[in-house]
Description:
4-stranded mixed beta sheet, about 10% strand
Amino acid sequence: METEIENLLAWAETKGIEINGCSPKQLHGRGVGIVATRALKAGEVILRVPTDTLRSLANTPPSIIASLPGASVHAILACSLCLDTTSSLSAWRAVFPSKADIHAVLPICWPSELRALLPHTAATLLGKQSAKFQKDWATVEAVYAPQLSKEDFLYGWLLVNTRSFYHTTRQTAKLPKEDHMVLQPVADLFNHSPAGWCAGAFTASAFTITTQEPHAAGQELFIKYGSHGNDFLLVEYGFTLPPPLNAWDETCLDPHVCHALTAAGQRPVLEDAGFWGGYMLDRETACYRTHVALRTLCLTPLQWRAVLDGERDEDRDQRRVDAELVRVLRRYEEDIVERIRDVEEATAGDELSREGLRDRWVQIQELVVGTRRRLEEQ
């Protein structure tokens, strides 16, 4: 990979990309990232990518755009990556993750046996992602098959999905937000961190990345992809962050809360009040919707409505609500133990896929067990 990185840097220089005090580096078990090559101060611009170097709708070959009327920008950029055989892309393409790498970490590529073991939120996100891909492929297939296979298009589509930046231009301003996508060399090698990240910014002439705090030589430099939980990171990017690095992590309690509420006949009441489903648990507590829903199991209908209307102090019944939540979390714990065992016994797919899936369930286990213990100790 050292040769590929050297070629990328040489190519980037010819494109006017300015790299200051940092460089791509192969990181053990994590692909390519960006590390500081010297001590960096806060406020240093460490990367500047000229606007005309961005790979966007604006510089996609007109023939591709014309052949895909109504296609998403995501699909158009993916097609452009797949069909571009010019030497201008070769140095950049050489540092892309391989097709095998992509297949190992992204659930959309996993066999059905592993996808069936995804947590509820991840499975829901994957369903939406798969529908989006199938829609894009239907558009592309009608024009470019068999020249472009579904497998190759999926690879290009996932490269765009995992490496694009959101950038609004005159050309994309009227398009949906998800179509404000550009690809950019070198900048796409920065990994994600929810803390200690460098700031990215677009101007009319360039995209820049600037340090926000000092960094020592050899330290990895990050940007922030967004405030995302680990289910989102797993489905969209193919990785998760171990606790407590991801302060935004959460898990959905719907399968267990909804089961308890349905058994007690509370679903119609909660649907009528707009509180059915969407029950989440983060590192601190269960969400307000969860407490409202579980309160139906503790109070009479008149008492519950009084709390909802602000006529009854919700703290008055909090211990009873917490007891219901503990029962839900205990059921969830039992389910998690089963899912971890299922993953450990699975033989389908890549070992790296199974490791990533098991890690996700262990992270959820820590969220659930930690909350349950805090409640029981109160």
